[in-house]
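Attaching the record inline, Q. Sequence:
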Amino acid sequence: MAKKAVATLQTGNKEKFVKVVRMVKSPKTGAYMFAEEILPQTKADEALKK
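Structure, as predicted:
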């Protein structure tokens, strides 16, 4: 059985990263899609307000 690799969003510097998942509506079909982004923790709130 294969081991599951767990990736961290931390780097050597003190800045922490988070994964932001937003649900957006497609302009063509009208269906909902998920948009994933990896952002610094300080900019995560700004990205969710869009």
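The chain has one domain: 7-45. The chain has one helix and two strands.

More tomorrow.
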